């Protein structure tokens, strides 16, 4: 079977993009990243895509005029690249109905907490401030809610008494970089191309 065609959507640093890209290169993911879509002009992830030779596309909500028009542009890029599966990796917008209608059930997200604990934009900070002794990482399908879709894989991460926010974030990111490729591959093995 041909390798699955993956798109990554991101807004920032892109360390998960690099971890996934590496996993496609060394055979841990039976797919290839065929494009990166990013929504913040200054996002460092575009440099990572350039270095990896992955075509990247900047799409601006502001310039699009509406969320629907913005997501129509994204769907067009995904269709042009015959994308099977969309991987959100630090994409900071809520997915709207246009994008969801095109890729529901084929769109994954990673969240830096053990859902349903600490959903939302600040999962690491919220867990840290809550003083819990463990948090986690979750990979889930994207639905119309915020971090509410079906959970595919999750793992606990301890919060140590001596942790700073930075040291906790670092531990969580390390788990993400291992867990996301694993979850993507497990998803792809039961995924049928249309
Ligand atoms: C990750 O912590 C991910 O869980 C969250 O956003 C962060 C993205 O990090 N959704 P990076 O841009 O992949 O380095």
UniProtKB/TrEMBL annotation:
The record marks 147 as: Raises pKa of active site His. Keywords: Purine biosynthesis, Transferase. It holds the Pfam family Formyl_trans_N. The active site is at 111 (proton donor). Its EC number is 2.1.2.2. PROSITE patterns: GART. GO terms for biological process: 'de novo' IMP biosynthetic process. One of its GO terms (molecular function) is phosphoribosylglycinamide formyltransferase activity. It comes from the Bacteria. (6R)-10-formyltetrahydrofolate binds at residues 67, 92-95, 109. One of its GO terms (cellular component) is cytosol. N(1)-(5-phospho-beta-D-ribosyl)glycinamide binds at residues 14-16. Pathway: Purine metabolism; IMP biosynthesis via de novo pathway; N(2)-formyl-N(1)-(5-phospho-D-ribosyl)glycinamide from N(1)-(5-phospho-D-ribosyl)glycinamide (10-formyl THF route): step 1/1. InterPro entries: Formyl_transf_N (IPR002376), Formyl_transf_N_sf (IPR036477), GART (IPR004607), GART_AS (IPR001555). It catalyses: N(1)-(5-phospho-beta-D-ribosyl)glycinamide + (6R)-10-formyltetrahydrofolate = N(2)-formyl-N(1)-(5-phospho-beta-D-ribosyl)glycinamide + (6S)-5,6,7,8-tetrahydrofolate + H(+). This is Phosphoribosylglycinamide formyltransferase. The gene is purN.
